[in-house]
Amino acid sequence: MQRVFQRFVERLNDSCEPAAFRQAMAEASAAFDLRCFAYLRMPRDSRAPAALISSYPHQWTDHYLARHYERIDPVIKQAHSTSEPFEWGENVAGTRGSPLEGAVFAEARAFGINCGFTIPIQDNRGPVAAVTFASDVRRPDFERVIGLNRRALQLMAISLHAHVRRKLWQEPRANGVKLSPRELECLHWAAQGKSAWDIATILGISERTVVFHFENAKHKMNVRTLRQAIAILCEEYRGKS
């Protein structure tokens, strides 16, 4: 497993955008027989959108973010209240509360997300992110994998967070306003002539989600067309070069 971790760190060093981070963690997770992972940035302002890098099915993540499930997800609630890694899933005490929270689990199971191991990440002001490794296998098999590799998974989570924070959390701006990393990423690909369908394929998200990011960026930048947003972005970067 040392070789897996070394390869993972090398991939992180070479990664500069969400898709590359997603691929690096997905490959490392697969080496531990873990079906998928999710890295969720948890903003301190509950009104702010969450940021997600994940290998979960995009139909589930689109649905999750659109409905702001990070605000009611019992796993994320627990990650806010503890600094210790924890397991969750059916028949695990403490990870299901209200009927609404139970419904989140039920919907996740429909996408093959039955159990998980979550690593909260905190700074000196409290929780900032959570990394989850999830699976659809029977609980005893999952618990065996986690038990054997718990320390390695924690190191992977911390390493991913450190690289993402340094490379993607720089609060990018255009036209004087902050853009999310995903909004900026979509605009960059559009500036290279990629269509919404092309960008969706590249980033592993739905075309509707790409359009959603375009609309958010245009609104923030106070422009009416995507062409105007791209022009402003290009001018901004020319001014910094």
Topology (elements, then pairings):
Blueprint: H1 2-14, H2 18-31, E1 36-41, E2 51-54, H3 58-66, H4 74-81, E3 86-89, H5 99-109, E4 115-123, E5 126-135, H6 139-168, E6 173-174, E7 177-178, H7 181-191, H8 196-203, H9 207-221, H10 226-240
Helix pairs in contact: 1-2, 1-6, 7-9, 7-10, 8-9
Walk me through this protein's architecture.
- The chain is α+β, with helices and mostly antiparallel strands.
- The protein folds into two domains: 2-168, 2-Layer Sandwich (Beta-Lactamase), CATH 3.30.450; 173-240, Arc Repressor Mutant, subunit A (Orthogonal Bundle).
- The chain contains ten helices and seven strands.
- The protein has helices at residues 2-14, 18-31, 58-66, 74-81, 99-109, 139-168, 181-191, 196-203, 207-221, 226-240; strands at residues 36-41, 51-54, 86-89, 115-123, 126-135, 173-174, 177-178.
- The strands form two sheets. A five-stranded antiparallel β-sheet has the order 2-1-5-4-3, with helices on both faces.
- The longest helix is centred in the middle third of the chain and has 30 residues, at 139-168.
- The relative contact order is 0.13.
